[in-house]
Please model this.
Amino acid sequence: MSDSLREPWLRGLAFNTAAPSDVLIRLLDGTAGGAGLLMCEGRDLPDAVVDAALRHPVGAVRSALARNPYVDPVWLTPLATDPSGLVRAHLAGGPRRHLRRVRPLPDDILVTLLTAKDGGEDNRLTADDIAGNLDLSRQVSLSFRRSLADREHPELRRRATWSWESLTPSQRAGLLDDPDPAVREEARNRSWVLDPEQVEARLPSYERRGRPMVFGRCALSPALVEQCFADGMVQPLAGNRQAPAHALARLARHPRAAVRALVAVRPDLGADLVAELSRDPDEDVRMRARLQRFSRTWAEYDMIDRVLDHGPNCTCPITAPAIPPSPDWFAACAASGEPVLRRVAASWPGLPGELVAALARDEDEEVRIRLACHHPLAPPRLLLDVFVARPAHRPHLLTLPAFPRTGTSHLVGHPDPQVRALTAADPAVPDPPVEDPDESVRRAAATNPGLTARVLEALLADPRTAEGAAANPSLPVPRMHALLDRCLNDAPASPTTAQGRGAADA
Model:
Protein backbone atom coordinates (compact mmCIF):
# COMPACT_ATOMS: atom_id res chain seq x y z
CA MET A 1 0.00 0.00 0.00
CA SER A 2 1.06 3.62 -0.46
CA ASP A 3 3.02 5.18 2.40
CA SER A 4 1.03 8.36 1.74
CA LEU A 5 -2.10 6.54 2.96
CA ARG A 6 -0.78 4.38 5.78
CA GLU A 7 -0.08 7.10 8.36
CA PRO A 8 -3.26 9.10 7.65
CA TRP A 9 -5.37 5.93 7.97
CA LEU A 10 -3.74 5.01 11.28
CA ARG A 11 -4.13 8.53 12.71
CA GLY A 12 -7.73 8.72 11.55
CA LEU A 13 -8.66 5.36 13.06
CA ALA A 14 -6.97 6.37 16.32
CA PHE A 15 -9.38 9.30 16.68
CA ASN A 16 -12.50 7.69 15.21
CA THR A 17 -15.11 8.16 17.94
CA ALA A 18 -17.04 5.10 16.72
CA ALA A 19 -14.06 2.74 16.68
CA PRO A 20 -14.67 -0.14 19.12
CA SER A 21 -12.12 -1.27 21.68
CA ASP A 22 -10.75 -4.11 19.56
CA VAL A 23 -9.85 -1.67 16.78
CA LEU A 24 -8.17 0.76 19.16
CA ILE A 25 -6.25 -1.95 20.98
CA ARG A 26 -4.75 -3.06 17.69
CA LEU A 27 -3.26 0.42 17.40
CA LEU A 28 -1.15 -0.31 20.48
CA ASP A 29 0.82 -2.78 18.38
CA GLY A 30 4.36 -1.59 17.80
CA THR A 31 3.89 -1.79 14.02
CA ALA A 32 1.19 0.92 14.17
CA GLY A 33 3.85 3.60 14.52
CA GLY A 34 3.04 6.70 16.56
CA ALA A 35 -0.73 6.52 16.10
CA GLY A 36 -1.21 4.48 19.26
CA LEU A 37 0.76 7.00 21.32
CA LEU A 38 -1.25 9.90 19.91
CA MET A 39 -4.45 8.01 20.70
CA CYS A 40 -3.44 7.19 24.29
CA GLU A 41 -2.58 10.81 24.97
CA GLY A 42 -5.16 12.69 22.96
CA ARG A 43 -8.67 11.28 23.28
CA ASP A 44 -11.16 9.67 25.63
CA LEU A 45 -10.77 5.90 25.62
CA PRO A 46 -12.99 2.92 26.39
CA ASP A 47 -12.17 1.14 29.65
CA ALA A 48 -10.78 -1.90 27.85
CA VAL A 49 -8.29 0.27 25.95
CA VAL A 50 -7.22 2.07 29.11
CA ASP A 51 -6.65 -1.27 30.79
CA ALA A 52 -4.58 -2.53 27.85
CA ALA A 53 -2.47 0.64 27.86
CA LEU A 54 -1.89 0.41 31.61
CA ARG A 55 -0.51 -3.13 31.19
CA HIS A 56 1.44 -2.39 28.00
CA PRO A 57 5.11 -3.46 28.18
CA VAL A 58 6.34 -0.34 26.36
CA GLY A 59 6.78 2.54 28.79
CA ALA A 60 6.06 5.12 26.09
CA VAL A 61 2.48 3.83 25.83
CA ARG A 62 1.99 4.11 29.57
CA SER A 63 3.57 7.58 29.50
CA ALA A 64 1.18 8.71 26.79
CA LEU A 65 -1.75 7.47 28.87
CA ALA A 66 -0.36 9.27 31.92
CA ARG A 67 -0.68 12.57 30.02
CA ASN A 68 -4.27 11.93 28.89
CA PRO A 69 -6.62 14.69 30.13
CA TYR A 70 -9.82 12.88 29.08
CA VAL A 71 -9.58 9.54 30.88
CA ASP A 72 -10.97 9.42 34.41
CA PRO A 73 -7.83 9.97 36.52
CA VAL A 74 -8.93 7.23 38.93
CA TRP A 75 -7.92 4.78 36.18
CA LEU A 76 -4.38 6.17 36.28
CA THR A 77 -3.68 5.14 39.89
CA PRO A 78 -1.35 2.24 38.92
CA LEU A 79 0.91 4.68 37.06
CA ALA A 80 1.81 6.43 40.32
CA THR A 81 3.86 3.34 41.24
CA ASP A 82 4.96 2.45 37.71
CA PRO A 83 8.40 0.83 37.52
CA SER A 84 9.49 3.62 35.19
CA GLY A 85 10.24 6.98 36.75
CA LEU A 86 9.56 8.61 33.38
CA VAL A 87 6.00 7.30 33.45
CA ARG A 88 5.54 8.61 36.97
CA ALA A 89 7.00 11.97 35.93
CA HIS A 90 4.61 12.25 33.00
CA LEU A 91 1.69 11.46 35.28
CA ALA A 92 2.91 14.13 37.70
CA GLY A 93 3.51 16.64 34.89
CA GLY A 94 0.02 16.31 33.46
CA PRO A 95 -1.21 16.87 29.91
CA ARG A 96 1.33 18.03 27.37
CA ARG A 97 -1.32 20.21 25.70
CA HIS A 98 -2.01 23.61 27.20
CA LEU A 99 -5.47 23.26 28.73
CA ARG A 100 -7.23 26.00 30.62
CA ARG A 101 -8.87 23.51 32.94
CA VAL A 102 -6.86 20.55 34.22
CA ARG A 103 -8.63 17.96 36.33
CA PRO A 104 -6.93 17.46 39.70
CA LEU A 105 -5.50 14.05 40.42
CA PRO A 106 -7.19 11.98 43.14
CA ASP A 107 -5.75 12.38 46.62
CA ASP A 108 -4.38 8.84 46.72
CA ILE A 109 -2.28 9.45 43.60
CA LEU A 110 -0.99 12.73 45.01
CA VAL A 111 -0.06 11.09 48.30
CA THR A 112 1.75 8.28 46.49
CA LEU A 113 3.78 10.64 44.30
CA LEU A 114 4.66 13.04 47.11
CA THR A 115 5.73 10.36 49.60
CA ALA A 116 7.64 8.09 47.21
CA LYS A 117 11.06 6.94 48.39
CA ASP A 118 12.57 6.58 44.92
CA GLY A 119 12.15 7.72 41.36
CA GLY A 120 11.54 4.34 39.77
CA GLU A 121 13.57 1.33 38.74
CA ASP A 122 15.15 3.05 35.74
CA ASN A 123 16.98 5.53 38.05
CA ARG A 124 16.62 8.36 35.56
CA LEU A 125 14.75 10.65 37.94
CA THR A 126 14.58 11.19 41.67
CA ALA A 127 11.42 11.27 43.73
CA ASP A 128 11.99 15.01 44.19
CA ASP A 129 12.19 15.49 40.40
CA ILE A 130 8.80 13.85 40.01
CA ALA A 131 7.28 15.84 42.86
CA GLY A 132 8.60 19.01 41.22
CA ASN A 133 6.68 18.14 38.05
CA LEU A 134 3.57 17.79 40.13
CA ASP A 135 3.98 21.19 41.77
CA LEU A 136 3.89 22.89 38.36
CA SER A 137 1.12 20.82 36.78
CA ARG A 138 -2.04 22.39 38.27
CA GLN A 139 -3.16 18.85 39.10
CA VAL A 140 -3.01 19.46 42.85
CA SER A 141 -6.29 20.90 44.08
CA LEU A 142 -6.23 23.81 46.48
CA SER A 143 -8.28 21.77 48.91
CA PHE A 144 -5.56 19.12 48.96
CA ARG A 145 -2.89 21.76 49.55
CA ARG A 146 -4.91 23.13 52.46
CA SER A 147 -5.17 19.64 53.94
CA LEU A 148 -1.43 18.96 54.02
CA ALA A 149 -0.93 20.23 57.55
CA ASP A 150 -3.37 17.65 58.88
CA ARG A 151 -2.20 14.65 56.83
CA GLU A 152 -0.91 11.50 58.47
CA HIS A 153 2.34 11.21 56.53
CA PRO A 154 5.08 13.49 57.92
CA GLU A 155 6.42 14.33 54.45
CA LEU A 156 3.08 15.90 53.59
CA ARG A 157 3.05 17.90 56.82
CA ARG A 158 6.60 19.05 56.04
CA ARG A 159 5.40 20.31 52.66
CA ALA A 160 2.57 22.17 54.38
CA THR A 161 5.15 24.46 55.98
CA TRP A 162 6.17 25.77 52.56
CA SER A 163 3.05 27.95 52.50
CA TRP A 164 3.43 29.12 56.07
CA GLU A 165 1.59 32.43 55.66
CA SER A 166 -1.46 30.60 54.22
CA LEU A 167 -1.86 28.30 57.22
CA THR A 168 -4.24 28.94 60.10
CA PRO A 169 -2.77 29.83 63.49
CA SER A 170 -3.73 26.40 64.86
CA GLN A 171 -2.05 24.64 61.93
CA ARG A 172 1.14 26.63 62.47
CA ALA A 173 1.14 25.80 66.15
CA GLY A 174 0.58 22.12 65.39
CA LEU A 175 3.47 21.99 62.93
CA LEU A 176 5.83 23.73 65.32
CA ASP A 177 4.97 21.06 67.89
CA ASP A 178 4.79 18.17 65.39
CA PRO A 179 5.81 14.71 66.67
CA ASP A 180 8.16 14.33 63.71
CA PRO A 181 11.49 16.19 64.22
CA ALA A 182 11.93 16.89 60.49
CA VAL A 183 8.52 18.59 60.37
CA ARG A 184 9.30 20.65 63.48
CA GLU A 185 12.62 21.76 62.02
CA GLU A 186 11.04 22.72 58.69
CA ALA A 187 8.31 24.64 60.51
CA ARG A 188 10.90 26.62 62.46
CA ASN A 189 12.80 27.31 59.25
CA ARG A 190 9.66 28.65 57.56
CA SER A 191 8.08 30.57 60.43
CA TRP A 192 10.31 33.59 59.92
CA VAL A 193 8.06 34.90 57.14
CA LEU A 194 5.54 36.14 59.73
CA ASP A 195 8.13 37.62 62.09
CA PRO A 196 8.94 41.20 60.96
CA GLU A 197 12.25 41.29 62.82
CA GLN A 198 13.45 38.04 61.25
CA VAL A 199 12.26 39.19 57.82
CA GLU A 200 14.26 42.40 58.21
CA ALA A 201 17.34 40.44 59.27
CA ARG A 202 17.12 38.08 56.32
CA LEU A 203 16.38 40.64 53.59
CA PRO A 204 20.06 41.53 52.88
CA SER A 205 20.67 37.91 51.87
CA TYR A 206 18.15 38.25 49.03
CA GLU A 207 19.23 39.59 45.66
CA ARG A 208 17.10 42.38 44.24
CA ARG A 209 15.16 40.00 41.99
CA GLY A 210 14.16 37.93 45.02
CA ARG A 211 12.99 40.85 47.13
CA PRO A 212 9.53 41.24 45.54
CA MET A 213 8.68 37.81 47.00
CA VAL A 214 9.64 39.03 50.48
CA PHE A 215 7.78 42.32 50.12
CA GLY A 216 4.75 40.54 48.68
CA ARG A 217 4.37 37.69 51.21
CA CYS A 218 6.09 38.39 54.49
CA ALA A 219 5.24 40.39 57.59
CA LEU A 220 7.12 43.67 57.31
CA SER A 221 8.63 45.94 59.92
CA PRO A 222 8.19 49.74 59.59
CA ALA A 223 11.74 49.94 58.25
CA LEU A 224 10.96 47.43 55.50
CA VAL A 225 7.78 49.29 54.58
CA GLU A 226 9.90 52.40 54.12
CA GLN A 227 12.33 50.42 52.01
CA CYS A 228 9.48 49.22 49.78
CA PHE A 229 8.57 52.80 48.98
CA ALA A 230 12.21 53.85 48.62
CA ASP A 231 12.98 50.98 46.23
CA GLY A 232 9.82 51.49 44.19
CA MET A 233 8.47 48.04 45.10
CA VAL A 234 4.98 49.19 45.99
CA GLN A 235 3.24 46.69 43.72
CA PRO A 236 4.21 43.59 45.75
CA LEU A 237 3.48 45.53 48.94
CA ALA A 238 -0.05 46.32 47.68
CA GLY A 239 -0.74 42.60 47.29
CA ASN A 240 0.80 41.56 50.61
CA ARG A 241 -1.90 40.28 52.95
CA GLN A 242 0.37 41.02 55.90
CA ALA A 243 0.72 44.70 54.92
CA PRO A 244 0.12 46.95 57.97
CA ALA A 245 -2.68 49.52 57.96
CA HIS A 246 -0.30 52.49 57.80
CA ALA A 247 1.23 51.05 54.60
CA LEU A 248 -2.21 50.62 53.03
CA ALA A 249 -3.06 54.23 53.85
CA ARG A 250 0.06 55.43 52.03
CA LEU A 251 -0.68 53.20 49.06
CA ALA A 252 -4.26 54.44 48.88
CA ARG A 253 -2.90 58.00 48.59
CA HIS A 254 -0.03 57.18 46.25
CA PRO A 255 0.42 59.73 43.43
CA ARG A 256 0.08 57.00 40.78
CA ALA A 257 -3.50 55.91 40.07
CA ALA A 258 -2.32 52.39 39.17
CA VAL A 259 -1.00 51.95 42.71
CA ARG A 260 -4.18 53.31 44.32
CA ALA A 261 -6.16 50.87 42.20
CA LEU A 262 -4.15 47.92 43.55
CA VAL A 263 -5.43 48.42 47.09
CA ALA A 264 -8.92 49.75 46.41
CA VAL A 265 -10.61 46.33 46.59
CA ARG A 266 -8.70 44.88 49.54
CA PRO A 267 -11.03 43.56 52.28
CA ASP A 268 -8.85 45.04 55.04
CA LEU A 269 -9.04 48.60 53.70
CA GLY A 270 -10.61 50.99 56.20
CA ALA A 271 -13.98 52.58 55.50
CA ASP A 272 -12.46 56.06 55.45
CA LEU A 273 -9.99 55.05 52.74
CA VAL A 274 -12.71 53.37 50.71
CA ALA A 275 -14.77 56.55 50.86
CA GLU A 276 -11.74 58.57 49.82
CA LEU A 277 -11.00 56.29 46.86
CA SER A 278 -14.64 56.34 45.76
CA ARG A 279 -14.09 60.06 45.02
CA ASP A 280 -10.73 59.47 43.30
CA PRO A 281 -10.13 61.47 40.10
CA ASP A 282 -9.31 58.24 38.25
CA GLU A 283 -12.33 56.32 36.93
CA ASP A 284 -10.73 52.89 37.36
CA VAL A 285 -9.89 53.61 41.00
CA ARG A 286 -13.47 54.78 41.65
CA MET A 287 -14.86 51.61 40.05
CA ARG A 288 -12.67 49.39 42.21
CA ALA A 289 -13.68 51.29 45.33
CA ARG A 290 -17.32 50.57 44.46
CA LEU A 291 -16.44 46.86 44.31
CA GLN A 292 -14.93 46.90 47.79
CA ARG A 293 -18.25 46.34 49.55
CA PHE A 294 -18.36 42.95 47.77
CA SER A 295 -14.86 42.18 49.06
CA ARG A 296 -15.38 41.54 52.77
CA THR A 297 -13.27 38.37 52.92
CA TRP A 298 -10.09 37.25 51.19
CA ALA A 299 -12.09 34.54 49.41
CA GLU A 300 -14.34 37.22 47.89
CA TYR A 301 -11.33 39.38 47.09
CA ASP A 302 -9.67 36.45 45.30
CA MET A 303 -12.70 35.90 43.07
CA ILE A 304 -12.81 39.58 42.10
CA ASP A 305 -9.06 39.73 41.59
CA ARG A 306 -9.31 36.83 39.11
CA VAL A 307 -11.42 39.04 36.83
CA LEU A 308 -9.88 42.49 37.22
CA ASP A 309 -7.52 43.55 34.42
CA HIS A 310 -8.41 40.55 32.23
CA GLY A 311 -9.75 41.32 28.77
CA PRO A 312 -12.10 39.39 26.48
CA ASN A 313 -9.27 37.27 25.09
CA CYS A 314 -8.01 36.13 28.50
CA THR A 315 -7.07 32.44 28.45
CA CYS A 316 -5.72 32.15 31.99
CA PRO A 317 -5.97 28.74 33.67
CA ILE A 318 -9.38 27.92 35.12
CA THR A 319 -9.00 26.69 38.69
CA ALA A 320 -11.44 26.21 41.53
CA PRO A 321 -11.00 28.23 44.73
CA ALA A 322 -10.17 26.22 47.83
CA ILE A 323 -13.02 27.87 49.76
CA PRO A 324 -15.40 29.76 47.45
CA PRO A 325 -17.66 32.54 48.71
CA SER A 326 -21.29 31.68 49.44
CA PRO A 327 -23.87 31.05 46.67
CA ASP A 328 -25.75 34.14 47.89
CA TRP A 329 -22.66 36.26 47.28
CA PHE A 330 -22.37 35.01 43.70
CA ALA A 331 -26.10 35.64 43.16
CA ALA A 332 -25.65 39.21 44.38
CA CYS A 333 -22.75 39.62 41.95
CA ALA A 334 -24.91 38.33 39.10
CA ALA A 335 -27.54 40.99 39.84
CA SER A 336 -25.03 43.81 40.23
CA GLY A 337 -24.87 46.80 37.96
CA GLU A 338 -21.08 46.47 37.89
CA PRO A 339 -19.91 44.43 34.85
CA VAL A 340 -16.86 43.19 36.78
CA LEU A 341 -19.07 41.56 39.41
CA ARG A 342 -21.29 39.96 36.77
CA ARG A 343 -18.11 38.58 35.18
CA VAL A 344 -17.21 37.12 38.57
CA ALA A 345 -20.63 35.46 38.80
CA ALA A 346 -20.32 34.12 35.26
CA SER A 347 -17.02 32.48 36.22
CA TRP A 348 -18.57 30.36 38.97
CA PRO A 349 -19.77 26.95 37.67
CA GLY A 350 -22.25 26.61 40.54
CA LEU A 351 -24.43 29.53 39.45
CA PRO A 352 -28.08 28.35 39.15
CA GLY A 353 -29.76 27.99 35.77
CA GLU A 354 -32.03 31.04 35.94
CA LEU A 355 -29.05 33.32 36.56
CA VAL A 356 -27.10 31.59 33.79
CA ALA A 357 -29.93 32.34 31.36
CA ALA A 358 -29.87 36.01 32.34
CA LEU A 359 -26.10 36.34 32.03
CA ALA A 360 -26.16 34.61 28.63
CA ARG A 361 -28.02 37.69 27.39
CA ASP A 362 -25.84 40.20 29.27
CA GLU A 363 -24.93 43.38 27.42
CA ASP A 364 -21.29 43.00 28.48
CA GLU A 365 -19.36 40.75 26.09
CA GLU A 366 -16.86 39.65 28.74
CA VAL A 367 -19.72 38.40 30.92
CA ARG A 368 -20.97 36.24 28.04
CA ILE A 369 -17.46 35.00 27.23
CA ARG A 370 -16.73 34.02 30.83
CA LEU A 371 -20.06 32.24 31.09
CA ALA A 372 -19.34 30.28 27.92
CA CYS A 373 -15.87 29.25 29.08
CA HIS A 374 -16.66 28.51 32.74
CA HIS A 375 -20.22 27.34 33.21
CA PRO A 376 -21.52 23.86 32.29
CA LEU A 377 -25.04 25.22 31.69
CA ALA A 378 -23.99 27.91 29.23
CA PRO A 379 -26.34 27.67 26.21
CA PRO A 380 -24.80 25.89 23.21
CA ARG A 381 -25.70 28.83 20.96
CA LEU A 382 -23.62 31.11 23.22
CA LEU A 383 -20.67 28.70 22.96
CA LEU A 384 -20.93 28.83 19.19
CA ASP A 385 -21.19 32.63 19.14
CA VAL A 386 -18.05 32.98 21.25
CA PHE A 387 -16.24 30.41 19.08
CA VAL A 388 -16.94 32.49 15.98
CA ALA A 389 -16.21 35.87 17.53
CA ARG A 390 -13.17 35.07 19.69
CA PRO A 391 -10.56 32.73 18.16
CA ALA A 392 -8.48 32.77 21.38
CA HIS A 393 -11.14 30.67 23.12
CA ARG A 394 -11.64 28.06 20.41
CA PRO A 395 -9.29 25.34 21.75
CA HIS A 396 -11.00 25.47 25.14
CA LEU A 397 -14.56 25.62 23.81
CA LEU A 398 -14.00 22.54 21.66
CA THR A 399 -13.25 20.53 24.82
CA LEU A 400 -16.61 21.35 26.42
CA PRO A 401 -19.30 18.61 26.33
CA ALA A 402 -22.05 21.14 25.56
CA PHE A 403 -20.29 22.62 22.53
CA PRO A 404 -22.66 22.20 19.56
CA ARG A 405 -21.58 19.99 16.67
CA THR A 406 -24.74 20.61 14.67
CA GLY A 407 -26.80 23.65 13.77
CA THR A 408 -23.92 25.45 12.09
CA SER A 409 -25.26 25.57 8.52
CA HIS A 410 -25.63 29.36 8.73
CA LEU A 411 -21.82 29.53 8.87
CA VAL A 412 -21.21 27.75 5.57
CA GLY A 413 -18.86 29.90 3.51
CA HIS A 414 -17.48 31.77 6.53
CA PRO A 415 -14.13 33.44 5.67
CA ASP A 416 -12.36 31.89 8.68
CA PRO A 417 -11.19 28.33 7.87
CA GLN A 418 -11.53 27.23 11.52
CA VAL A 419 -15.21 28.14 11.40
CA ARG A 420 -15.63 26.43 8.04
CA ALA A 421 -13.97 23.31 9.45
CA LEU A 422 -16.50 23.23 12.26
CA THR A 423 -19.35 23.53 9.77
CA ALA A 424 -17.82 20.97 7.42
CA ALA A 425 -18.17 18.24 10.07
CA ASP A 426 -21.79 19.11 10.85
CA PRO A 427 -23.94 16.11 9.80
CA ALA A 428 -26.81 18.47 9.00
CA VAL A 429 -24.80 20.26 6.31
CA PRO A 430 -26.03 18.81 3.00
CA ASP A 431 -22.85 19.11 0.95
CA PRO A 432 -19.64 18.87 3.03
CA PRO A 433 -16.87 20.90 1.34
CA VAL A 434 -14.40 18.09 0.63
CA GLU A 435 -12.73 20.26 -2.03
CA ASP A 436 -12.22 23.32 0.17
CA PRO A 437 -8.86 25.01 -0.48
CA ASP A 438 -7.94 24.71 3.22
CA GLU A 439 -6.51 21.37 4.36
CA SER A 440 -8.17 21.45 7.79
CA VAL A 441 -11.57 22.08 6.23
CA ARG A 442 -11.16 19.16 3.80
CA ARG A 443 -10.11 16.88 6.64
CA ALA A 444 -13.12 17.94 8.74
CA ALA A 445 -15.47 17.47 5.80
CA ALA A 446 -14.17 13.94 5.33
CA THR A 447 -15.25 13.12 8.92
CA ASN A 448 -18.86 14.12 8.20
CA PRO A 449 -21.08 11.08 8.96
CA GLY A 450 -23.56 12.21 6.33
CA LEU A 451 -21.24 11.22 3.46
CA THR A 452 -22.31 8.28 1.32
CA ALA A 453 -20.29 5.08 1.35
CA ARG A 454 -19.14 5.70 -2.23
CA VAL A 455 -17.88 9.20 -1.44
CA LEU A 456 -16.22 7.97 1.75
CA GLU A 457 -14.28 5.31 -0.13
CA ALA A 458 -13.07 7.90 -2.61
CA LEU A 459 -11.89 10.11 0.24
CA LEU A 460 -10.07 7.18 1.87
CA ALA A 461 -8.08 6.75 -1.32
CA ASP A 462 -7.07 10.42 -1.50
CA PRO A 463 -4.03 11.34 0.68
CA ARG A 464 -5.50 14.82 1.17
CA THR A 465 -8.62 13.48 2.91
CA ALA A 466 -7.60 9.95 3.99
CA GLU A 467 -7.10 10.86 7.66
CA GLY A 468 -10.50 12.51 7.99
CA ALA A 469 -12.22 9.66 6.17
CA ALA A 470 -10.61 7.06 8.45
CA ALA A 471 -11.91 9.08 11.43
CA ASN A 472 -15.44 9.16 10.00
CA PRO A 473 -17.81 7.54 12.56
CA SER A 474 -19.96 6.08 9.77
CA LEU A 475 -17.05 3.92 8.58
CA PRO A 476 -18.16 0.28 9.10
CA VAL A 477 -16.20 -1.63 11.72
CA PRO A 478 -15.21 -4.41 9.28
CA ARG A 479 -13.77 -1.71 7.03
CA MET A 480 -11.78 -0.33 9.99
CA HIS A 481 -10.24 -3.75 10.57
CA ALA A 482 -9.53 -4.12 6.86
CA LEU A 483 -7.65 -0.82 6.84
CA LEU A 484 -5.70 -1.90 9.89
CA ASP A 485 -4.84 -5.23 8.24
CA ARG A 486 -3.34 -3.39 5.30
CA CYS A 487 -1.46 -0.91 7.52
CA LEU A 488 -0.06 -3.43 9.98
CA ASN A 489 0.81 -6.13 7.45
CA ASP A 490 2.71 -3.60 5.34
CA ALA A 491 4.39 -1.95 8.33
CA PRO A 492 8.05 -0.91 8.10
CA ALA A 493 10.56 -3.32 9.57
CA SER A 494 11.65 -0.95 12.36
CA PRO A 495 9.53 -1.32 15.52
CA THR A 496 7.61 1.51 17.12
CA THR A 497 9.28 0.84 20.43
CA ALA A 498 12.15 3.17 19.61
CA GLN A 499 9.73 5.92 18.56
CA GLY A 500 7.80 5.27 21.72
CA ARG A 501 10.86 5.71 23.91
CA GLY A 502 11.57 8.98 22.18
CA ALA A 503 8.05 10.17 22.82
CA ALA A 504 8.33 9.21 26.46
CA ASP A 505 11.48 11.23 26.86
CA ALA A 506 9.98 14.33 25.25
